[in-house]
Amino acid sequence: MMMKFLALIVLLLAVFNSASARKQNVHFDFCPTCVDFLNKDLGDLEKILSGGVLGSCSKVCSLLPAQSEQAICDLLCSIVGIDEFLKIFNELNIDPVYLCERLTVCPVKPGANGTVLDVAVQPSSGPHGTTFTIGVAYQVLSELGTAEIAFVVTDPTGTNGFGDAELLVSTAVGNYNAQFQFQATPSEGESFPEGVYQVQVLLCDGACGTKHGSTYNFLTTNFTITAGGSGNSGSITGGSGSGSGAAFY
Ligand SMILES: *[C@@H]1O[C@H](CO)[C@@H](O)[C@H](O)[C@H]1NC(C)=O
Ligand SMILES: *[C@@H]1O[C@H](CO)[C@@H](O)[C@H](O)[C@H]1NC(C)=O
């Protein structure tokens, strides 16, 4: 744990140095860390900032509960300065990916483009407790900036959605695969009724389903939950790599 923390600090310092030294030549290694951090801590930060805090980056960031979060916050804030930091977080319709782009640690690439080529679910039907695997093939047509490959599963009532996304950073032209897993086990929060579940897989510039993000394209498929099976907790597992929860709910 301590080693991990130290490694993170070293990475932060390395990124910070390159960011301040030569802004146009930053490698965006820190982008996933920034997005993960804000996926977790954006609510806390907004609460702190809405209190109208005045002062330095370290003063604002010291109000976050954990030391590791304070360090990431301090680094991000230091890159743009406290005034710009407060300004960015005061914008409307902010989401983690957009914020990390504005904080200059995630790339923005005009003209980026890509397309979802194929989507398939295995198995195509099964009882409660079945793990459904959503396989995706996609193509990057022009190098991506900060993007997401995301899925949304809508239950047969059409009102409940579940999703997750994988963050893509500076992904080069080429063909790629992604895999998501979805386990439908009834819980208090969601009964997972039997029936046909629609699956939508999207490739987006920025974060899917946000005001600042936009969808390159999407494909749909479905799977069926049949009678039988049992269990007591639902879970959704994102693809490998750095997931970033998108607001599909
Ligand atoms: C992406 O490429 C497709 C296929 O060439 C094209 O139809 C679409 O307009 C492009 N989208 C963007 C945002 O450039
Ligand atoms: C489910 O997907 C299959 C294959 O893509 C399609 O033929 C069918 O119409 C879909 N069913 C529903 C209810 O969406």
UniProtKB/TrEMBL annotation:
According to the record, the signal peptide region is 1-21
What Gene Ontology biological process does one annotation of this record name? aggregation involved in sorocarp development
- Which keywords does this chain's UniProt record carry? Disulfide bond, Signal
InterPro entries (UniProt xref) = SaposinB_dom
Tell me where in this chain the Saposin B-type domain is found.
27-110
Q: What is this protein called?
A: Saposin B-type domain-containing protein
What high-level taxonomic lineage is stated for the organism?
A: Eukaryota, Amoebozoa, Evosea, Eumycetozoa, Dictyostelia
